[in-house]
Amino acid sequence: MNDAQFLQWLQDDSANRVVLIEAQVNAGGSEVTRFIASRLYVTGPQDSPANTEYLPLATGGLAFTEQVSLTAEAGLSGGDIELDNADGSLDSWLDDVWRNRSIKAWVGDSAWPRADFRLIFDGITADIGSSAPETLNLSLRDKMQRLDTPITEAKLGGATPNKDAVLPVPFGECHNVSPLLTDPVTLEYGFLGAVESSFEVRTNGKPIAVALNDQAGRFNLTTPPYSAAITVSVQGDKGGAGGTYAPRIAPLVRRIATAYGKESDRFTDADLDLANLDTFDAAHPQLVGLYVADRTNQAQAIQQLAASVGAQALMSRTGQLRLVQVALPAPGVPVEIGPEHMKEHSLRQVQRLPVVAAVKIGFDKNWTVQASLTTSIPAEHADLYATEWLTETAVDDAVRARYRLTDDPAQIDTCLKTRADARVEAIRRLALGKAQRTVYEFDGEPEMMMLELGQPVQLRGERFRLQDGVPGVVVLLSHNWLAARVTVGVMA
Questions:
Q1: Roughly how many angstroms between the first and final C-alpha of the chain, as a whole number?
Q2: Phi, then psi, of 168 in degrees rounded to 5
């Protein structure tokens, strides 16, 4: 079934819509699949799964929400499914383990073969509960929850004083990090796995000679250090495709999601929107660096990298990780949205975003701040090693005066490495924020259910001075597939 046929079915008020749910659960110590539906549905012998009854238990919820954060604090998308338990027959399900298990939902017509149903949610169950005696409730989260685990818990081991320390991981190019002392006898320092290059090894800020072993992610001091404060700049993890070093956002996001964290929860390429990542990489080749020397989890690291250019890592409703940058105009061909695509009188303003007159970007982080270095290095170098961030600020004086705003805003820390890239990003964010931006919502007709987060639109309405249309970007989608209705949020 193609998109045009599916849309035609969504627009048919007489369609016999049904949502099918397949939920993984640990029941009595065994992993099983529960087959649930909004009405009784039984697959045929040629279907997959064959001859399977989906129990008509889902009575409410079935609304799935996706949202782009406008505060740079990306969260998880999710929803809720309400199950009929009026007779108490499902009480035993509360003893089963649902948390962090896969759950998928499809929508279709009761007359369709199973293969024609359209996947509408691919995520995990956060938990099961009961909001009323006659119901059970499954709370849902997107698959990003699987990445809520430390990037690495690999410890050095052995018998040295650092045997219980976690080996640090550098991603991209990281300036002046503190490597782990891996062997105090041979004065060996290093990281978890191979690196592209270690350089500028210093003791108390002063360069020192070393023997490098980048393939092992190690180096040895060839003379005793002047102090215990050993730092190094490093071009890190090179485990990308073909063992290559790729210090850019999209390749590092892919690497962190698929090669780190708890092995059983790691993403595969099937969990990634590879076309989206390739497009994002082509548009955002900025050099970045992120040093992980603690229990930073995968999702946090991925969001830090993406946020460096005002983007977020989001899961599509079909369970694939995508990178979406909040931008106006958004890239791509805009979808025309007018009153004919909205339920009558449903267009409303829900948020007016604050105007900004200046943007301050922190870049090229100094990962080991060293104040009052006493070795014989130039004073300007000592000042740099005492400074955590370099900064770049873009200001619009006319906006500052008109809105009576500050030209010294709060600093936005990024993983960007170069001043040129920081300058471009500061100017881009200023251009986005110095105009009054508004978030509008409306209840959409069925064709609006095909929209995607981050998609460009041309929004036209009968109110709020939208009669001639304005460029916007989709920032919220809340689907109710049984009713073929969607709430759409657009920033314009």
A1: 34
A2: -75, 160
Q: Which residues, in sequence order, are bridge partners of residue 84?
A: 135
- Tally of CB atoms within 10 A around 287: 17
- Residue 293 carries which side chain, given as an amino acid letter? A
Please state whether 193 falls in left (phi above 0), alpha (psi between -120 and 50) or beta.
left
The answer, yes or no, to whether the previous bond of 184 is cis (omega within 30 of 0) is: no
Give, as one character, the DSSP assignment of residue 283: H
Q: How far apart are CA 475 and CA 491, in angstroms?
A: 6
Asked if the model's pLDDT at residue 271 lies above 70, the reply is yes
Summarised one tens digit per residue, pLDDT across range 185-226 is 999 999 999 999 999 999 988 889 999 999 999 999 998 887
Task: Judge if the upstream peptide bond of residue 168 is cis by omega within 30 degrees of 0.
Answer: no
Q: What are phi and psi of 446, to 5 degrees?
A: -55, -35
**Non-local CB neighbours of 83 within 8 Å, separated by 6+ positions:** 36, 57, 58, 59, 90, 135, 136, 137, 138
Per residue in 88-120, pLDDT (tens digit) is 999 999 999 999 999 999 999 999 999 999 999
- The residue written with tokens 């080749």 in the block is 285
Most distant CA pair in the chain: distance in Å?
Answer: 82
Residue whose entry in the numeric block shows the structure tokens 């990962």: 367
Torsion of CA 147, 149, 154, 159, to 10 degrees: 180
Question: pLDDT per residue over 68-84, tens digit each?
Answer: 888 655 555 667 899 99
Contact (Cβ atoms closer than 8 angstroms) between residue 236 and residue 170: yes
Residue 430 carries which DSSP code? H
Tokens 């809520």 sit on residue: 148
CA distance 33 to 55: 12
